[in-house]
Automatic annotation (TrEMBL):
GO terms for biological process: axonemal central apparatus assembly; cilium movement. It comes from Polioptila caerulea. GO terms for cellular component: axoneme. Gene3D superfamilies: Immunoglobulins. This is HYDIN protein. The gene is Hydin_2.
Length: 138
């Protein structure tokens, strides 16, 4: 009996890999930008997008989640984070002036998912949000 296996892990790319800047916007207007999450590996994987914790910079070295982008948006909310099950069940995530969709899903090998980040300019001033993309098996 011959037995063989190949151990692999999830490989992916995120474009753009850093800042998404919507620039100056007139109050009440809407702009949309896209982030592409691509599966470059041999296995399907699930992803979920969530708001970074308040102390994200302190946790960055300790967590395995990859920061996907920093967004200019409204200041952080002091409310608690949504339960994980709720994140998996919803199709979009709204943080201040920003709506991200889809915020969870599955990508097959060599597939990709376009993630839409929509900004509806609300209050005046410069605002920012930070998101994390969590990928299973990375």
């Amino acid at each position: 009996v011959r037995v063989s296996a190949k151990a692999v892990y999830s490989k992916y790319s995120i474009e753009p890999a850093s800042l998404i800047d919507f620039g100056a916007m007139i109050k009440g207007t809407k702009k949309t930008q896209t982030v592409v999450l691509e599966n470059k590996g041999m296995l399907s994987f699930r992803f979920r997008i969530q708001q970074a914790p308040e102390d994200a910079s302190a946790l960055e070295g300790k967590r395995y989640e990859k920061p996907c982008t920093t967004l200019p948006g409204c200041s952080r909310h002091s409310s608690s984070h949504q339960p994980l099950l709720e994140l998996f069940l919803q199709g979009h995530l709204t943080l201040g002036m920003f709506t991200v969709s889809p915020c969870s899903g599955s990508i097959s090998p060599w597939g990709q998912q376009k993630i839409t980040v929509e900004c509806l300019a609300g209050q005046e001033g410069t605002c920012e949000e930070q998101l994390y993309i969590d990928i299973t098996g990375r």
